[in-house]
TrEMBL record:
Pfam families in alphabetical order: 7tm_7
Species in which this protein is naturally found: Strigamia maritima (European centipede)
Ranges that cross the membrane: 56-77, 89-108, 190-214, 267-287, 294-314, 379-401
Entry GO terms, CC: plasma membrane
Main location: membrane
UniProt name for this protein: Gustatory receptor
Subcellular location as annotated: Cell membrane
InterPro entries: 7TM_chemorcpt (IPR013604)
Membrane topology listed for this record: Multi-pass membrane protein
Signal sequence bounds: none
Amino acid sequence: MHLAVLNFTKTRSPITESIKPCSEYAVRLKSFWSYAFAIFGIDMCIRGHESRKKRIVFIVLAIIQLIIFFHYITGLIHNVALESTITKLSGYASIFACICVSIFNFWFMNRRRVAMTKLLDDSISYLSGHPECTKRVWQYSLIPSIGLFAITLAQASFASADVFTKDNAGIRTYNTLFSLADEYLYITRIVVGVEFIVSVLICVGFGNISVWFFNHMCHLVFYRFKHLNMKLEELLRSGKQLSSFHLAQYRAQHQLACQVTEELSCLWSPLIVIWMFGFILGFCFAMRALQTKLSIFLLLAFLADISRQLWLIVGLFKAASLVNVEAHKLAVKLVTFPISKSAFTDADKVICMEYYFNYLLLSERLVNTRIGINASGLFLLNGSSFLSMVGTVLTYVIVLYQSQ
């Protein structure tokens, strides 16, 4: 009987979630990410076709990124040919790493936009009945996005200001394709200044939006586990004996939440690895560039870039760690929860067996299963992996600062 009720509940749950009316903040969330990606020509929709206008914008931005990519390759080759030191190359390498990550990120997000949008809509619809949660996620999505955009805008402004305040000898270091007389160096200033602004706003700006969109999805999954745990905690605090139906229902809903977590990992796993590699490489080269004699504007630009990358990588690990912690939160409580022998009579042997079966399966899942966001199966994004990464980065920073 309990299994029949459970099967009926599992059958109805997707339909029930899909017809929940969206709250005000749920609608705002969907609109926010739709507009944010539309700026870069990516149509976040689940329909089969996309806007022609957005497609043109996407192609134009992709071409611009490729042009900037080849320009910085030329700059790197030119500096290597002049036997520049690693310290002198660090500025180029930091920006070049950012552009490489941006190109892959741009292509990847466009390729999987439909699946990502469907997961976003399903996750928001699940929380539509909890307006307080959607409001918090909305604030978490909006406020940091504005802060990251401000840092990116400051970085672009400082970089372009550095170009226009350099002397002729300094501006010639940016001209790697052809030589110009001093009276025509203003052309180089304009081209390089505009390129800095465009590359930062497009490459860096899109990277900010992509990473924070992933963090937003992690928070949606976190609140899914949180509300599921709150229901079970209420039963545990009430002092009532958990029924077989409660255990089976919780296990089924926990399984659905785990499937959403696994889908989130699968959709973003290759990109997470690229983000990690790009952030670590860009951060190390940016720190090394601070060893050189930089102008005040270029120094501020590098400091803004370092703070932005730190913000993104800490936010990424924090959001993913929340999912990992919340998914296992009730493991200790459930395992140590006392089971009353008098709760079942001899006539309830079938129900008793069903109860212990569900209890053991649920305990096994919570205790021995690693639930969370993984990076292509290489490691789980949690507090331990974050500390390991911090140790690795600090080691490389020390080595870079000691090398000449």
